[in-house]
Amino acid sequence: MSFAVPKGLPGNPNSQSLGRIAIETRVHNLWNHLIESASARTGSLLIWDTGTYTVLPRKKSSRRPPSPQTTDDGSDTDLEAFVQATLEAKPENEKLIDAFKSRYIRLRLNGFKLPKNYTITLRLPFANDVSKSRPARRKSRRKPKSAGAPKSTDSEPEDDDREADPPPEDAQDIDTDSDEDAQTRLNNAYPGSTNTIGSVHQRAWFILLDRLSSGFVQERAAETWVRRGNAKGEGFDPFFILGREVESSVVTGRLAREVERDEGVEGFVGRAGWVGITR
């Protein structure tokens, strides 16, 4: 499964825009993730980070009643603990698919660039759970506004740490090639890969930094999140993903313009909207 994160992964526990939109993109085959290339249509494709992942269980509610005991001798054996151990014995990819289908993924990413214990959650709001891919939009001529018509004040909604509105309509096809095959769009999978997980084209998820699981605690007086002070050195210094002019490949160290130069691509102009958040 693949997601486009137009404003980058959240790396600051005190960010004013902690929540981000994660747009479900076409299922990739392994080859797509192991190459660095460029074209006049897509620009540079480089590997920013690579590594493994761990699917964490969903957080428990404090209002949940205690589970029944499973033994007669008064021991602390808990049915819930047994079920949890059974779930944890499953392979990570199976747990990821189960979490994906449940609309809530709690994921620890173990990469070379990402800090230790970096944890995010991905949640699919019901409002964004479209069952069919959106038809390709056709360009239409805008009707002239009347002299007394008010000007539009619509703008992209701000994300916060509670909920995220769906992205504006103009941002829906942010990763879509202009000449994509209709069957590829319908199946939401690139040729050579199979969509067996029910992935839906351009479905908008909500991505959030899991601050507690990433090693942060909240200072009540200042209402800010700080690194948990212990011998394990939990938490991390804030980081920001600053875009194609700054970010380099974790494999070759190349920048976007260097990848394009090596592939003979000149004069690429990137799409609007792919900007990192630094506040």
UniProtKB/TrEMBL annotation:
For region Disordered, the annotated ranges are 57-78, 130-194
Database matches in InterPro entries: LigD_PE_domain (IPR014144)
Q: Where is this chain compositionally biased, Polar residues type?
A: 184-194
Task: Return the Pfam families for the record.
Answer: LigD_N
Q: Where is the composition biased (Basic residues)?
A: 134-145
- In what residue span(s) does the DNA ligase D 3'-phosphoesterase domain sit? 2-120
Q: Where is the composition biased (Acidic residues)?
A: 155-181
Highest taxon of the source? Eukaryota
UniProt-recorded name of the protein: DNA ligase D 3'-phosphoesterase domain-containing protein
